[in-house]
Amino acid sequence: MKVTVAIAVYNVEAYIEKCIKSALNQDFEEEYEVLVVDDCGKDNSISIVERLAATHPNGRKIRIVHHEKNIGTGAARNTGIDEAKGEYICFMDGDDYMAPNAVRLLYETMVANNVDIVLGNHQRIYPDGKIDGTSNYRPGIVKSEYAVVEWMKHNSAGIYPVAMWNKLFRTSFLRDNGIRCVPWHRYEDPFFSFQTAFIAKSIVTIPEVTHNLVIVNGSCTHSEVTESHVNQFIDIIDRSLALCEENRKEGKVIPREIYWIITHIFFWTDITKRTLKSSVVSKKQKKEYFDHVKEITHHVKRSDETDWKHKAVYTIVRMPCSYLLMKLFAFSLGTVEAVKHKLK
Q1: With contact defined as beta carbons under 8 Å apart, do 143 and 202 qualify?
Q2: CA-closest candidate to residue 38, choices 58, 53, 28
Q3: Which range, of 17-31, 126-140, 154-168, 212-226, averages the lowest pLDDT?
Q4: pLDDT confidence tier of residue 78, bands split at 50, 70 and 90
Q5: Rounded CA gap, 266 and 317, in Å?
Q6: Residue 293: CA count within 13 A, CB half-sphere
Q7: Which of 233, 238, 205, 10 has the alpha carbon at shortest distance from 119?
Q8: What distance in Å separates the CA atoms of residue 102 and residue 311, rounded to the nearest whole number?
């Protein structure tokens, strides 16, 4: 078996048929499987998958693994890693869909270059088909001790995308290095991808758009932040910094860009804005969240090598009134990302 396309399914009835068909209708001629992990939703998602398995010309490629009860997205992703029969594995959300040549392009690039990770470009798209934007990752190969760090330095995007989807991994790379999701995380991507960025010795980017990210209102990345979400954010920070410190104690030099990945997750996106604006998160927990974000800066020394984005964020966060400043950003300017756009 060459490739496993692992799809965690939970309450995506309106989207799952298009998702599964996109995985089945690939122009990939090698043997591959579509591994569906049933996380026990309350709608008809799995019934639709079972119908496609029985009626679609490529339905035999579908393999369904059923959980006994709902245990969360992170745990479902781990089931995909554990159960995969493919030499390589890619992940997809049940409300997204792949380009028809996605598996072939990712696989051929992987085989030709023998790397840990192959990354494609993606487009953000609304359910009505309107395109919101397309990524523009610079194509090329990087092989080094911290391959993702070098990728970040030379890539026009400047930031490693933390989403699990639209990447092809060697399955043994994940298993041998113990790279897994935190089972109870609904935001399962950040720490998983932080581990891959920390450990990967090689990465290739291809220019083609291979993934369509469907923007769904009510998903975890678009719904209101709750105290449960904040607990996950704090845990991601703690685990990421602990991984860095564990390796630092072993004598490894941790590049600043590794910390910048964590900073990006919580500042260069809208997570901090949404957390501080949430009406259901207590003031005490908001302050606790921000204190943990601030802890990142204690692990990074100022340097002439640090670019203006690093300096701007870390300087603001270190200031005594930083919490009030970030609340101001959240309620008036948005995030540092919004400030960046206003300065252009």
Answers
A1: yes
A2: 53
A3: 212-226
A4: very high
A5: 12
A6: 30
A7: 205
A8: 38
Average pLDDT of the segment spanning 131-141: 93
Does domain 3-214 fall under CATH 3.20.20.450? My reply is no
pLDDT value for 308: 65
pLDDT band for position 325 (cuts 50, 70, 90): low
Contacts of 87 (CB under 8 A, 6+ apart): 1, 2, 3, 170, 171, 172
pLDDT tens, residue by residue, 58-69: 999 999 999 999
Domain ranges of the chain: 3-214, 227-343
155-158 contacts at long range (C-beta below 8 A, 24 or more positions apart): 155/205, 158/309
Structural tokens at position 181: 């999701």
**Secondary structure class of 323 (helix, strand, coil):** helix
Query: What element of type H or E holds 97?
Result: strand 97-98
278 contacts: CB under 8 Å, gap ≥ 6: 224, 225, 226, 286
Neighbours of 180 (CB within 10 A): 18
Tell me the β-bridge partners of 93. Answer: 8
Higher pLDDT, 270 or 239: 239
C-beta pairs of 274-278 under 8 Å, 24+ apart in sequence: 274/224, 274/225, 275/225, 275/229, 275/230, 275/233, 275/330, 276/326, 276/327, 276/330, 276/331, 277/330, 277/331, 278/224, 278/225, 278/226
- Note the pLDDT of residue 338: 45
Write out pLDDT tens, residues 294-314.
887 777 664 445 566 666 666
Closest to 209 (Cα-Cα) out of 126, 136, 258, 148: 136
Other Cβ atoms less than 10 A from the Cβ of 335: the count is: 21
